[in-house]
Design a protein that fits this description.
By secondary structure, the protein is of the alpha/beta class. It contains 14 helices and 22 strands. It has helices at about 15-25, 40-45, 50-65, 80-105, 150, 160-165, 180-190, 210-225, 320-335, 365-370, 385-390, 420-430, 435-440, 450-465; strands spanning about 1-10, 30-35, 110-115, 115-120, 125, 130-140, 145, 160, 175, 195-200, 225-230, 235-240, 245-250, 255-260, 260-265, 270, 305, 345-350, 355-360, 375-380, 395-400, 410-415. Strands 1, 2, 3, 4, 5, 6 and 17 form a seven-stranded mixed sheet that branches. Strands 8-15-9-10-11 form a five-stranded parallel sheet. The chain starts with a strand and ends in an 18-residue tail after the last helix. About 45% of the residues are buried.
């Protein structure tokens, strides 16, 4: 058994783990990086980048279909599924290669291949070949897509999003179970590439939206293009020759059966912590087995153990993973002198069409932290000038401000160029800007951002009329802190 002593051991070489390792090394500590799976990060291999490649192909096909509305006629569209997937895999491999090359440049003695588990506080076993004694440990093991066992028994055509990027051609049909960000992005892209797609969801949710009016608009807009079954339960998935028979039950109790080439489970991801033997780590866990931690320091209780990225089940997003990893690695290096790190204003984006964004605090968060103390402004994109020019005039923006202070709190939206508007509003929220100050900023014409100004003007008027008796403010309920 090989024995290693180090200052900081990082379990996982994804976005959070790499950030943690570099932060610990920058602080002058001896750190090791332990990874049992493939190098390349979830984002590069099966997440952000390959999904955007597929979405871009879908957008290209959709642009040709939409062109006649402008008086432009391109002729019949031919989609070469094999060529689409060849580009997706090739570019995916290129992105993964960049990450692997960076890892290869790390000192060989700092890289340990294998799966780690706790043997005792401060002691890890890596497979059966290495024993690591670390004064501090960072858990950055990521997450895995959820595929219920009863569905998986139907065979290899029941897949998670990971498997989509290994296809060598486009299938004829796919059932997408779930209307979260991943399912919506992939399902709409496949639909636009000529695949028969149907969505099924147990509830009424759309991506990360919680504002009732934004959610209603998103449902209406997306159902104009996509086949979507809400409040529908999956009864069974059975192999039926070369297809899968999917039986579902609607809200009225009626069962329906449809056949698809694939069933894509997009019902969430689960943290990779079960095999870590956290019962031997000397840290507290919640009822799901996830370590309890301080989100400002990433420290698990008062222990020298820190957790970052998807493993803590907080916000499974690459920017969050990188920030959390940086904080965790830095504090692991400085332990016991642990300090709060920079947690940026939340920003979530779904690359659907129209795009969906939640910059700053969303509706649900504000009802917990600011009940009765926030106002709402809104704008529809139906008649917004630049949106109509581009034939992208669908969607709704809802913006939130705090009574009394006039401070901008956040927004939820579905609409054109939401990825850019989301950044603009997230920056305003993190800067603590008031709605009045935001309206003092320049707005060009004609641009989609003029819709933001319209919503902010509406919000400014609403803020002039606070409720007669405001609840007492909460000193620590600022969204995003």
């Amino acid at each position: 058994m090989n024995v290693i002593h180090c200052d900081v051991a990082v379990i996982g070489a994804g976005s959070a783990g790499l950030s943690a390792y570099r932060a610990a090394r920058t602080a002058g500590k001896h750190a090791v990086l332990i990874e049992g799976g493939p190098y390349g990060t979830t984002c590069a291999r099966v997440g952000c980048m390959p999904s955007k490649l597929l979405i871009s192909a879908g957008e290209a096909a959709h642009a040709v279909h939409a062109a006649p509305a402008f008086g432009v006629h391109a002729g019949p569209v031919r989609i070469d599924g094999a060529a689409v997937m060849a580009r997706v895999r090739s570019e995916r491999d290129r992105f993964v290669g960049f990450v692997v090359d960076n890892i290869d440049q790390l000192p060989a003695e700092d890289r340990i291949r294998g799966y780690a588990r706790f043997a005792a506080p401060g002691k890890l076993l890596v497979d059966e070949h290495t024993e690591v004694h670390a004064e501090r440990i960072v858990i950055a093991t990521g997450s895995s897509p959820v595929v219920p066992e009863e569905w998986a028994q139907a065979g290899p055509r029941v897949i998670s999003s990971d498997a989509v990027f290994e296809w060598t051609d486009l299938p004829r049909s796919v059932a997408v179970i779930g209307t979260g960000v991943i399912g919506l992005e992939l399902g709409q892209a496949l639909h636009r590439l000529g695949v028969k797609v149907a969505f099924y969801a147990r509830g009424n949710s759309i991506a990360q939206l919680s504002d009732p009016e934004a959610l209603a608009t998103a449902t209406q807009v997306l159902k104009e293009e996509l086949t979507m079954h809400f409040q529908t339960q999956v009864v069974s998935v059975k192999a039926d020759g070369e297809e899968l028979a999917l039986t579902t039950r609607d809200l009225a109790g009626h069962e329906h059966c449809a056949r698809f080439d694939y069933v894509l489970a997009a019902i969430g991801r689960t943290p990779n912590v079960k095999s870590l033997r956290l019962d031997l780590a000397g840290i507290e866990r919640d009822r799901r087995g996830i370590p309890l931690y301080d989100r400002s320091t990433m420290q698990c209780g008062t222990s020298p153990v820190f957790i970052a990225g998807d493993a803590n089940d907080e916000l499974p997003l690459l920017p969050e993973a990188a920030d959390q990893g940086r904080i965790a690695g830095h504090n692991a290096a400085l332990f016991p002198d642990v300090q709060p790190g920079l947690r940026r204003t939340p920003l979530t984006i779904a690359f659907t069409d129209p795009q969906i964004a939640t910059p700053g605090a969303g509706w649900r968060d504000l009802w917990h932290s600011h009940e009765g103390r926030f106002a709402v402004g809104a704008v529809s994109f139906a008649d917004q000038g630049r949106s109509r020019v581009m034939l992208q005039n669908r969607g709704l923006l809802r913006v939130y401000g705090e009574y009394g202070s006039g401070r901008f709190l956040g927004a939820e939206m579905i609409g054109p160029r939401a990825e850019h508007i989301g950044h603009l509003l997230a920056w305003a929220a993190q800067a603590g800007m008031t709605v009045a100050a935001m309206l003092d900023m320049p707005f060009y014409h004609p641009v989609i951002e003029e819709g933001v100004r319209t919503a902010l003007r509406h919000l400014a008027e609403e803020l002039k009329h606070p409720p007669p008796e405001l609840p007492a403010p909460c000193p620590d309920c600022t969204p995003g802190t």
